From TrEMBL, chains A, B:
Residues 290-390 form the D-serine dehydratase-like domain. It comes from Pistricoccus aurantiacus. Keywords: Lyase. This is Amino acid deaminase. CDD domains: PLPDE_III_cryptic_DSD (cd06818).
Amino acid sequence: MSISPQNANEKGLPQTGVSLLRDVSLPAAVIHEAALLHNLAWMQRFVDAHHARLAPHGKTTMAPALFQRQLEAGAWGVTLATAVQCRAAFNHGIKRLLLANQLIGAANMTIVAELIEAGAEFYCVVDSVANAQALGRFFEERGLVLKVLIELGVPGGRCGCRTQEQVFELARAVNGASALRLAGLEGYEGVVHGNDPARRIRDYARQLVTTAQALYQDRLIEADDPIITASGSAWYDLIAEAFDAAGLREHFTPVLRPGCYVVHDHGLYQDAQQDVLVRRPDLEEGLRPALEIFAQVQSLPEPGLAIIAMGKRDIGADRMPEPLRRYREGGRLSETLDVTGWEVTRMMDQHAFLRLPEAASDVQIGDIIAFGTSHPCLTFDKWRRVCLADENLNVKEVMETCF
Amino acid sequence: MSISPQNANEKGLPQTGVSLLRDVSLPAAVIHEAALLHNLAWMQRFVDAHHARLAPHGKTTMAPALFQRQLEAGAWGVTLATAVQCRAAFNHGIKRLLLANQLIGAANMTIVAELIEAGAEFYCVVDSVANAQALGRFFEERGLVLKVLIELGVPGGRCGCRTQEQVFELARAVNGASALRLAGLEGYEGVVHGNDPARRIRDYARQLVTTAQALYQDRLIEADDPIITASGSAWYDLIAEAFDAAGLREHFTPVLRPGCYVVHDHGLYQDAQQDVLVRRPDLEEGLRPALEIFAQVQSLPEPGLAIIAMGKRDIGADRMPEPLRRYREGGRLSETLDVTGWEVTRMMDQHAFLRLPEAASDVQIGDIIAFGTSHPCLTFDKWRRVCLADENLNVKEVMETCF
């Protein structure tokens, strides 16, 4: 005999309408609606102001309900990291898919072929003649045309051609494959490192622009509507500025791909956002952190130590989660309790160690703590369902993820 | 229009019968059947030889198909880390559940009440009078009896009473709550640290035994068939030896709770297993690593560098994954290629950086690499489905997980 709800075999399964302070099995992943709506509008406004298109990186959340909101806010398409993620997005109604990665392996190529046959507008990235040839053979046999973007990387970086010579050699190979259509240039500035990163990223963005222009002038771009695309959620302002040049936009549509912006965070991307706002004092209030994990005090075994029922399986641990607010279980929203000086010192799979200051004498087992995350990608993938919460901390919507 | 398979919205969805070297979208999580069967039998034999019962920690895999095999091999029940995990196990036919954690929060207590009402034999852990009182009130209102185990921890450790005085105070509080039934003592030696850990763990195990005996002698144990339980997958031999004492077994059933043993690993637990075999030269061959992640070379952007389409979202990264074997995509099982000197140097969310020695001149984009993991808990939770593979690397069974 199973118990209700019948399919309740995973965590994060609240019903709508219930209170996070009373009715929901914790830990739970919570998105605050007001901050989410702010971020959706903010980034679309930013991208529009720079005459670009937005293809938010869907790998961050893999939540189709969020993809849908991003499209409704004005996004041009959705970026994804794997063929399987593309299939999940397409099956939830996303027609324009940008795989910001190389497409490797016959099984993954088959997935993409089926997407194209079903009507997807699909782009992927190439950085080697060998991969271009493999793709050319596979899609020719299927009688399909595959739009590809050449990836320009940086020495010491991740994927991508390292020189303009390699880009041109690859462009000629793509042009020589009847099943491939060269549709533009792709880069990712997030792997540019070194002193004075802003200068290096501006240099890299300029290199992307000149390389795209050179490909166009040499008539190596085959698509009618080619794109130039880069940008994560840390340096999108520098990419947007470099791509917002009339000479470039005449031939290429600039496409920006931030992902984490949609829920932002309390760590890595909060820091990056401060830097954006310093570089761009003209921007209004920046992004707001929208994602939190709610968890409860499980044990108070020693003075100054609380064990929280939340671990590496519930929240990203690139940095230690940050205690933001505390509530008494079943208490009122307005009665938030102090967490000043509280600090997560260690994470295990299912537990966090929280060091308490001496003043925390009012802490009780069962107290609910809202934790800030760093970063969102490695928090979302811990959850099959996240709660959208209204301003009263009631669950307004349960969003499924597809990891 | 969706594409087939209709519910193909997540990674890890191979059909059975297909080859991991040809037909499966990679990355994929792979359990080798022969090693799995070896481990299932090995640990049950070990536990039987020490006159204990096995309640394997299910949080490691959260794969009901593995729970079922563990029960078929002789396990007494399944241990879990949260109320939601207990519900998932019960809904898959596991009737005896040991929640090796405190049960906190009305929503989680409600889940457990429903399990007990549906026929589960359920145990959980308490370490404070406050929690015992909350449980007592909740289950009395529901008209149910809850079996609890007192947790004895260690100073500087995680949860658990720190002194025998606290244990006795708590035992009296449990005895005073009509809805609670004191059913034994629980500990976890995995949080014992310091110099000469084996000595410290033996001391801790002895403390568990003497505390349980003292509770019995003071007539504070209320259940007819009380248990004493401890042990993860690193020090289970020392716990088993301490619990294998006739005087103890007369009153308490010893229950061991290793979880990672079932698939073992190539890191943390491999090291721990070496130590077990040094301490216990009488044991035959130890556990075998059964879990691997199969992933492909995505890019070869610079001499000496391969980018692998596998990241922190696919494999535990407590230690860097270990390249074990390499295959050509579509190649033969017998033709494994060299990975000597190959080393993962960095992990991102969806990528791994692999440093190649100069000799690796035969590497090709698309090559399939089998990676060893550390540790299994943080690898399983990256997958909704794992492949059980036969000795020919064909998928024999697809196992769902419930995270």
